[in-house]
Structure formats: C-alpha cells, structure tokens
From TrEMBL:
Keywords: Coiled coil, Membrane, Transmembrane, Transmembrane helix. GO terms for cellular component: efflux pump complex. SUPFAM superfamilies: HlyD-like secretion proteins. One of its GO terms (molecular function) is efflux transmembrane transporter activity. Residues 113-176 form a coiled coil. The chain crosses the membrane at residues 9-27. It comes from Thalassotalea euphylliae. This is Efflux RND transporter periplasmic adaptor subunit.
Length: 436
C-alpha cells in the first residue's frame, strides 16, 4: 500500500513540474508573438510653416531714455536777502538767455565796490607821487653810484603792485554786485524753483533747476550688429545719392541736384503715441563693460515748441531704419529657441540652424525678422513651436499650420463625441440599476 501511494505521489509531482514548464514555455511564446506583431512607435508630429526669403527693410526698435540737455543747478554766488524772486517764473516756464530771474539785496556789495574804487584812486595817487619824486631825484643826481632806494625804484614798484591789487579787488567787488542779479545763462525751461519771498540766501544755495529749451537728448544703447546695420543703411543711401549726381551730371551738369550728406535719423514715440524725429548727436567710442553695447545720443530740436511736449526722464520707443536684406524671413517669435536658433524640417528630419537676427520688435511684437546663416535664399519648413527635447536628425511628421489646426479641431471633436458616448452609457447603466 505504502509503495503504491509513494509511486502515485512521485507521478503527480512529475506531472505538476512538467505542467509548470509547459505553461512557462507557452507564456514566453505568446509574449514573443505579441512583441513580433507590436506596431512601431508613431512618428511625432510637428507644426511647421513654409517660409520664403524676400527683400525687406529691417527696422530696429529699442527703448531709450529722454535726457535734458545741459541740466543745471543754478546756485547763488553771493549771500543776502532775496528782494525779488520773480513770482511769474515757475516750473515749466521758459526763460531767455540774460533774463533776470532773481535779485539779492546788494547794499553791502555796492559799499565794497565803492571802497575798492577809492582804493584804486589812492593807489594811483601814491604811484604818481613816487614817480614824481623819482623824476626829481634823477635830475638832482650827479653821480653814477646812486642806489635804487635814493631813486625811489622800490617805492614805484610797490605803488604799481598796490594799484594792480586795488584794480583786481575792484573787479571782484564789481562781480559780486553783478551776481546779486541772477540771470539765465541760456535759453532754458525751468524744471524746479527753490526760492521764496524775502528768503535769506547763502552763497551756494540752489535757486533753480534748469535745462536747455532748444534741444533734448535721447539716450539709447545698441548691440554692435544693430549699429552696423544702421551705418550700412546710411552708407547705401550716400552711395545712391552720389550715383544719382554723377548720372545727372553726364546728362546736364548744370541741372545736377545738390545732394547733402545723409544723416542718421530715428523716430521717437512716447507712451501716448506721439511721434518726433531725431538726429544722431554722437556715438560713444567705448562699449559698456557689462552689456558690451554702444551708447549713443539722439537729439530733438525745439521739443517744447509744439502743442505736445516731450519732457525728460521718461521711457520712449526708438525706431531706426536698418540695412535692407535681400533674403529675410518674417516669422512668429515662437520659432526662436532660447539660444536664438531655429528648427527646420528637411526630408522628414529635424535640422537646427543658425540665423542672423535683424529685428526682435516689428510692428507686430509677436514677430521676428531674421536671415539664415547658410543658404539664406532657400525656402524652408520652419518649426513653429520648438521643444527642448528635439534632436537633430530626429524623424518627424511635418504638419502645415493649417493642417495642424484642422487636426487639433478634429481631435477636439472626437474627444467630445467620445465624452457624449460615455455619458449616454453611464445614463443607461444608472437607469437599469434603478429599475432593478
């Protein structure tokens, strides 16, 4: 009995082991078949736009700061009580060069001027007396061994020095009298006024804050490549003007027009949309050590004469005409990567390309103007929304922007239909459960 039971147990164990191996073999075979028939990964789709290089006039737009020309803190040169502070002159008023704008009591300075004048008269009298005595001494002197003191030479020298000192003192006193009447040093606009009636003024006190009313400056910082584009525009214009003059002179020298040098100009726009025309005043010969940009100043003539005035210390938009590009691309700003490059699709694969950025701020702030560094005249499929995980040579399925929008709309419609079907099935199951 026992031997029969043990044989049966062994047989059952063998059958179980064989069954386990058979099940494992079948599972491996089914997984291999599933892996063999598993479909390939779908090729990622990218939204692209077709771009064609064309000739465009680039426009460089930057932000500038309005700066006063000749900002001046007009200080008092003498001390005293203010006897006239000219009430009608207030911040925003315009004053002419030489116009009186404040008057300080001058009685002490007039007294000092009179004393200086009397000192001059006394010095002249002393000098005349010593010159007369010197003349008499020379006539009475019979020997050649006379010393200088006997001929009054030291006395005459001292009298001349005293006269020079008295005259200098007189000029100083006269200057102080003149300083009691404060006048505008140039045509100016009053930015601030720091005087009050009968105010006690100390020499060095600030009376007015002034700035030139004839011109105003715009401070702008440009990258080197931007300045080169602006200079190229001016050079091309001058060359065109010279060629026109030469061609006209060949036809009729007497009718050749007079061509002036083309100046670098810029359009200034404030936050309210008001526009002014400006000209280049100067370009700084050094670069900013931090930003490596060039500083230049633009100037606007008579900024306060129009109904709309341009006041200092405000931000404005500055627009320059840059060199005309023959192979430029105008595209949405989203095509740029963080390192100022773009992705294109060539033969179904991604290609990262370098560009030369011509303008980052067109009339539409969402667009950029650039040209390709290599083969700039070739048409391209430009990736609209580049991703950080894109790889050069990666195979993609390009979708034109219109096709991409249609695909998105189709996906939204399919999603909405699927949601409706799920809602209907859920409603049916809920109704059936309620009946049960």
């Amino acid at each position: 009995m026992k031997s029969g039971k043990s044989k049966s147990l062994v047989i059952n164990s063998l059958v179980a082991v064989i069954g386990i191996f058979l099940v494992l073999w079948l599972l491996d075979d089914s997984e291999a078949q599933q892996a063999a028939i598993e479909p390939p990964q779908p090729i990622p789709q990218v939204s692209v736009i077709e771009v064609t290089p064309t000739a465009r006039m680039a426009e460089i737009k930057v932000t500038g700061t309005v700066k006063s020309r000749w900002p001046l803190a007009l200080n008092a040169n003498v001390s005293g009580r203010l006897i006239d502070h000219f009430e009608h002159i207030q911040p925003g008023s315009f004053i002419r060069q030489g116009q009186s704008i404040a008057e300080i009591q001058d009685i002490d300075y007039v007294t000092a001027l009179a004393s200086a004048e009397a000192r001059i008269s006394q010095a002249k009298l002393t000098l005349a007396r010593y010159l007369n005595e010197q003349s008499v001494a020379k006539h009475l002197e019979t020997t050649n061994n006379s010393n200088e003191f006997r001929l009054f030479k030291p006395h005459v020298s001292a009298a001349k020095a005293e006269l020079s000192s008295a005259q200098a003192n007189y000029q100083s006193a006269l200057k102080r009298v003149q300083d009691t009447k404060v006048k505008a040093p140039f045509d100016a606009i009053v930015l601030a006024k720091h005087t009050a009636p009968a105010q006690e003024i100390t020499a060095g006190d600030t009376l007015y804050q002034l700035a030139s009313s004839q011109t105003i400056d715009i401070e702008v910082h440009l990258a080197t490549y931007q300045w080169q584009q602006i200079v190229s525009t001016k050079t091309d214009s001058q060359n065109d003007a010279k060629s026109d003059v030469q061609s006209n002179s060949i036809v009729n020298a007497e009718q050749a027009p007079h061509q002036e040098n083309t100046e670098i100009t810029a359009r200034i726009t404030d936050n309210q949309g008001n526009i002014w025309q400006s000209q280049l005043r100067f370009l700084s010969p050094t670069l900013n050590p931090q930003t490596r940009q060039q500083r230049l100043l633009l100037t606007i003539e008579n900024p306060y004469q129009n109904s709309v005035m341009l006041y200092p210390e405000q931000q404005v938009n500055v627009s320059f005409n840059a060199a005309q590009g023959s192979n430029t691309i105008l595209a949405p700003a989203t095509v740029l990567t963080r390192d100022q490059q773009v992705w294109t699709v060539q033969d179904g694969r991604l290609v990262q390309e370098e560009i030369q950025l011509l303008s980052e701020d067109i009339e539409d702030s969402d667009q950029v103007l650039f040209s390709f560094s290599k083969q700039p005249s070739r048409e391209r499929l430009l990736v609209r929304y580049p991703l950080s995980n894109m790889l050069a040579g990666q195979q993609v399925n390009p979708l034109m922007e219109k096709e991409s929008l249609l695909a998105e709309q189709q996906n939204e419609q399919e999603g909405a239909q699927l949601g409706d079907q799920l809602d209907k099935q859920l409603a049916k199951s809920t109704f059936a459960g309620a009946q049960q």
